Amino acid sequence: MRHLIAILRGVEPAEAADMARGIVDAGISMIEVPLNSPEPLKSIASMVEAVGDRAQLGAGTVLTTKEVGEVQAAGGTFIVSPNCDTQVIRCTKTLGMGSYPGVLTPTECFEALKAGADALKLFPAGMAGTGGMKAMRAILPAGTLLYAVGGAEPSNFAQWKDASADGFGLGSSLFKPGMSVADVTANAKASVEAYDEVYGG
């Protein structure tokens, strides 16, 4: 499995299904719709209907337990947050969903893991830098999945891999509001090719 999450911040419900098809066809099987997008739950439901048999659909920028329930009701199967909120993590796991909280310090990492997080999202990764990730990895339990999000893109996958990144959340390097499906699909393909080259696809 490629540890890549496509982040579609600002996607519109009317284009969501076609965007999802293009991304999944390109080889990315996890797609996140941040909740500060236009009608995000509609977009998630549309994507679930279009590619739910081939991909995992979830939400990002999830800040409350109420939102976790709303995402599940829309068909989402995983939750991504910009922060480490143990209540959100526990609620996510109680509902049987994947949990990907944002962390930036060792304290947040261990709190997230204790609460049941499936993987950690180093965010903003550009702020921590590759040196920060290496230092973090040295104290994390063996087998902890660590994603670089915010500053990671195909051109620097190799540097992040050297810093021990297991995967990436891809935002503006993959999707910006106003892009065509063809553009986003091309970006997804380029991301997959870069990932496979670095990690051995």
TrEMBL record:
<keyword id="KW-0456">Lyase</keyword>
<comment type="similarity">
    <text>Belongs to the KHG/KDPG aldolase family.</text>
</comment>
<dbReference type="InterPro" id="IPR031338">
    <property type="entry name" value="KDPG/KHG_AS_2"/>
</dbReference>
<protein>
    <submittedName>
        <fullName>2-dehydro-3-deoxy-6-phosphogalactonate aldolase</fullName>
        <ecNumber>4.1.2.21</ecNumber>
    </submittedName>
</protein>
<comment type="pathway">
    <text>Carbohydrate acid metabolism.</text>
</comment>
<dbReference type="InterPro" id="IPR013785">
    <property type="entry name" value="Aldolase_TIM"/>
</dbReference>
<keyword id="KW-0119">Carbohydrate metabolism</keyword>
<dbReference type="InterPro" id="IPR000887">
    <property type="entry name" value="Aldlse_KDPG_KHG"/>
</dbReference>
<comment type="subunit">
    <text>Homotrimer.</text>
</comment>
<dbReference type="GO" id="GO:0008674">
    <property type="term" value="F:2-dehydro-3-deoxy-6-phosphogalactonate aldolase activity"/>
</dbReference>
<dbReference type="Pfam" id="PF01081">
    <property type="entry name" value="Aldolase"/>
</dbReference>
